[in-house]
Specification:
8 strands, Immunoglobulin-like, alpha+beta, 3 helices, single chain
């Protein structure tokens, strides 16, 4: 009697799916790795958020481990390169806004998502403007001279 090995079936199915995916993607004209291998280079999905202190990016890199990830700042741009496996890689080039402090950019890979923080330079952050109470008569539309002359009569 032959025993059915579910893990062997899953591995076979995964191999079949990988081959189907590779065949489907091959006809799309997607970019290949720079070294000419058959690795498909994909553009990862990304979301961005902004507050008064920084821009925050979440870049989806499923299956990527820290040792397969490279982030580089050059000429006001951020290039993300990641290798998932022998067949798939990710690459994205992001132009940086002028107000980013490139010296303080940081990134953290957690659960297949690269979290990038692009802090804004201090001199471009919004500042509060102090507003004084002023003279109540001046606020009412009368000049200081009119108030003083009215008090003398």
């Amino acid at each position: 009697m032959r025993f059915w090995d579910v893990t062997q079936e899953i591995d076979r199915l995964r191999g079949d799916m990988d081959r189907l995916f590779a065949q489907a993607v091959a006809g799309l004209g997607l970019p290949r790795a720079a070294n000419g291998t058959e690795r498909v280079v994909l553009r990862p999905a990304m979301t961005a958020d902004e507050d008064e202190d920084a821009y925050r990016l979440a870049i989806d890199l499923p299956g990527v481990r820290p040792e397969g990830l490279d982030a580089e700042l050059h000429d006001r741009s951020l290039r993300i390169r990641a290798v998932r496996d022998e067949r798939r890689a990710y690459e994205r080039l992001l132009p940086l806004p002028e107000d980013v402090d490139a010296e303080r950019v940081s990134a953290d890979l957690r659960d297949g998502v690269l979290w990038v923080t692009l802090p804004k330079r201090e001199e471009v952050k919004p500042r509060k403007v102090a507003i004084g109470a002023g003279d109540q008569a001046a606020i009412a539309g009368e000049s200081r001279e009119q108030v003083t002359a009215g008090a003398a009569t």
